[in-house]
């Protein structure tokens, strides 16, 4: 199996879902968009749900790698944090449609096998740990303080970004700079 074909199939699925509802997406339409035979898709994915699930995990891995690379940059904590938030928002918004479809179809919740559930948990833990490493650097250099652990702060950050994308109609979106300042001020003052 060739990794580039797998990526080509996932990219085609991502492009199609931008214009169609989940129920309208077929493996055949994905195959045509990817320029592969329908049977080729089934070499890589059991079914449409599996394709969406793997796409999500692939995105999670990319996200964890991106956060890790931010942590390795030679920047002040504040600059790392601002860069982290902007990159997280961009990555989440790029995959917003697929994430929305997965939530609507409860694809993550419907996974019955323990292997899939464990893989999902491991990816989420890795992302939280990578973000937590950046937060910990702020604790270590005295830039921020909190009674919360770095992992708890990381969870809050991810929830804020996801919540920003899923706000109710009519609610003014929180500007990214407002969100960054809100979190930094709370961390600089310490929390109880």
Question: What can you tell me about this protein's structure?
Answer:
75% of the residues lie in helices and 0% in strands. It is elongated and about 55 Å long. With 192 residues, it is mainly alpha-helical.
Summarize the structure.
The protein is mainly α.
Core attributes:
192 residues, mainly alpha, 10 helices, elongated
Question: What proportion strand?
Answer: under 5%
Sheet with most strands: none
SS content category: mainly alpha
Net shape:
elongated
How many β-strand runs? Answer: 0
Average pLDDT reading: 83
Q: For the record, give the distance between the C-alpha atoms at the N and C termini, rounded to a whole number.
A: 52 Å
Radius of gyration: 19 Å
Distinct helical segment count: 10
Order of helices and strands: HHHHHHHHHH
Query: Which regions contain 5 or more consecutive residues with pLDDT less than 50?
Result: none
Helix content: over 70%
